[in-house]
Amino acid sequence: MVVATAKVAVVARPSSHYPMSRIVFTPSGLDAEVADGTSVLDAARKLGVDLDSVCGGRGICGRCQVTPSVGSFPKWGIEARVESLTPPGQDEIDYRGKRPLVEGNRLGCMAKVCGDVVIDVPAMSQVHKQIVRKDLDLGEIVVDPNFSLYYVSVQQSTLGDGVTAIEELRSAVAKQHHLAEPTVANHVLSTVHRAI
Fold it and tell me: Which domains does the chain have, with CATH numbers?
């Protein structure tokens, strides 16, 4: 007689009878409804929020530090309280005793959602650093580059017409682009004949 055994993993899925809370991540602005008891790190992963963690959520690396925000957030219709996250557990307390944890920060892998909450992901906890691009107002400054590229068309010169390829090129640039005295760099001179 052969007896077979199997290991089955049971995953609790949120449904309508589980308490749900809203979590909002800044600066991304991503938000979702998650089941109470979901870790901040798991919620971030579900939403695709850029939150670093290399220890697999075991509270060892400290890269998933987040800053819970407390107060009224009319933009999202949230009243976030300190009680919106579970209090620090023993693992998080032990981590705080061994390694630096910024004052007011929590480990995203240890903090569990139990109410509507707004979570700020500081730059140090993001895998990909943000690049902020802004328009540059040069004011009175006029950009005048040392050289410019121009497309010109010239007629193919013939031998004995008395005009060099450089003279033909300078004349075409002057006429087609309204430049008074165009110059040609020395290192370009050797390639002009082949190009024309």
Answer: 20-125 (3.10.20.30), 145-196 (no CATH)
Q: Are the beta carbons of 32 and 46 closer than 8 angstroms? A: yes
Task: Determine the 3-state secondary structure of 107 from DSSP.
Answer: strand
Give the three-class secondary structure for 113. Answer: strand
The DSSP string of 4-47 is ------------TTS-EEEEEEETT--EEEEETT-BHHHHHHHH
Confidence (pLDDT) at 130:
66
Q: What angle do CA 52, 54, 60 make, to 5 degrees?
A: 105
Q: Average pLDDT per run of 10 along the chain, which is 196 residues long? A: 41 61 92 94 92 87 92 92 92 83 90 95 81 74 77 71 77 83 77 72
Q: Around 1, how many Cα atoms within 13 Å sit in the side-chain half-sphere?
A: 1
pTM: 0.58
Indicate the SS3 state at residue 177: helix
